[in-house]
């Protein structure tokens, strides 16, 4: 077997693994950032309602 072919196969596996990891990590990161912003907004609103 040609060594370049093996390199191509392993590079394809590696790229596929990166895509799978990205597809698992990216939505979780966005969801966590959204939750953090919403909790900060809720804290700000509760502080404002407590001042009034």
TrEMBL record:
TM stretches of this protein: 6-25
Gene Ontology CC terms: plasma membrane
Subcellular location: Cell inner membrane
Residue stretches in coiled coil: none
Keyword Ribonucleoprotein set for record: no
Membrane topology qualifier: Single-pass membrane protein
InterPro entries xref list: Haem_export_protD_CcmD (IPR007078)
Any GO BP: cytochrome complex assembly
Lineage: superkingdom: Bacteria
Keyword list, A-Z: Cell inner membrane, Cell membrane, Cytochrome c-type biogenesis, Membrane, Transmembrane, Transmembrane helix, Transport
Main localization, broad class: membrane
Keyword ATP-binding: no
Family: Belongs to the CcmD/CycX/HelD family.
NCBIfam families for this protein: cytochro_ccmD (TIGR03141)
Described function: Required for the export of heme to the periplasm for the biogenesis of c-type cytochromes.
Protein name, entry field: Heme exporter protein D
Gene this protein is translated from: ccmD
């Amino acid at each position: 077997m040609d060594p370049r072919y093996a390199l191509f196969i392993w590079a394809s596996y590696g790229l596929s693994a990166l895509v799978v990891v990205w597809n698992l990590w990216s939505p979780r990161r966005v969801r966590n950032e959204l939750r953090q912003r919403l909790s900060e907004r809720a804290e700000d609103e509760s502080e404002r309602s407590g001042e009034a």
